[in-house]
Amino acid sequence: MTAIETDGLTKRFGDVVAVDDVNLQVEEGEVFGFLGPNGAGKSTTINMLLDFARPTEGSATVLGYDAQDESEQIHRRVGVLPEGFDLYERLSGRKHVAFAMKTKNIDGDPDAILRRVGLSDEDARRPAGDYSKGMRQRLAFGMALVGDPDLLIMDEPSSGLDPTGINEMQELVREETERGTTVFFSSHILEHVEEICDRVGIMNRGELVAIGTLDELHDRIGGDATLELDLDDVPQRAVDDLPSIDGVTGAERRDGTVEVRCAAPTAKAEAINRVEAAGATVLDIRVEDQSIDELFEQLTGAGEPASETADGDALETEVTA
Ligand SMILES: Nc1ncnc2c1ncn2[C@@H]1O[C@H](COP(=O)(O)OP(=O)(O)OP(=O)(O)O)[C@@H](O)[C@H]1O
């Protein structure tokens, strides 16, 4: 069974198309990273999955239940860690979890859940107002785990956490997935999800512009690599000649080094041959693959003004075809 499935899911707020015809499938047991820059439509999608917002068009199922007609069943089996969750400063961690249990009509030991997320019995007795940012996140995570959900939906769980907090959050997610829980979590920072995700979906301006494993996305986008050759001498004619090789998209000379941009892996060997044929001796070779951050920037046009859509549109067609 698919844990989450959307079919043409669309949400408009007046003229703003927050979510635009999104078709998404998340399999059971999967850790799925839902990525995109601010305003991409991630929270709105999540809100529609949980029936906190109604789609303008399209539909969604969660754990096989219709998101609109069977939201009660969904809420019983899904744990949610909302973006910017609120805690009651004066209530203890234990009371928070007890409250979540009561809401879900579940008996159990709040302390056991808090221990599961790394909060001691002593922490459990302290008011949440005294908690550090990481502890607050753990508490919210614990509340989401009440009732042993089959699916955890987390909206920007790593926002505001320091690197240690992010690692801890990733560890908690890993532990839950080992129990078989499906995890769907959003982030605008690729680095926060790439370590633990089986697959990612990338949203941009309301559209799902890419979906797959990070390796698949790399492959589909072509993943340029830069070949850096340290040479004893850099013959200009060799540099000028390199772009004529199939799969080489550019070459540049920097002191004793030539940088060759290769779109095809096979182009690298030919580039080395050509340089040597021009009389240079290759002293050292380095290859830098396109970083995953560059890939993300390419897919989302991160940092570009909202009006510049042309490049993004071209790429969307390419990667979602
Ligand atoms: N209730 C609303 N009324 C009007 N516009 C809205 C509403 N909710 C969201 N939007 C708009 O819809 C678009 C998508 O917003 P959304 O919050 O889903 O993005 P996001 O990817 O979750 O962003 P962030 O990472 O900043 O939380 C944005 O342009 C936002 O301004």
UniProtKB/TrEMBL annotation:
It holds the Pfam family ABC_tran. GO terms for molecular function: ATP binding; ATP hydrolysis activity. Residues 4-230 form the ABC transporter domain. InterPro entries: AAA+_ATPase (IPR003593), ABC_transporter-like_ATP-bd (IPR003439), ABC_transporter-like_CS (IPR017871), ABC_transporter_ATP-binding (IPR050763), P-loop_NTPase (IPR027417). Residues 310-321 have a biased composition (Acidic residues). It comes from the Archaea. This is ABC transporter ATP-binding protein. The lineage of its organism: Archaea, Methanobacteriati, Methanobacteriota, Stenosarchaea group, Halobacteria.
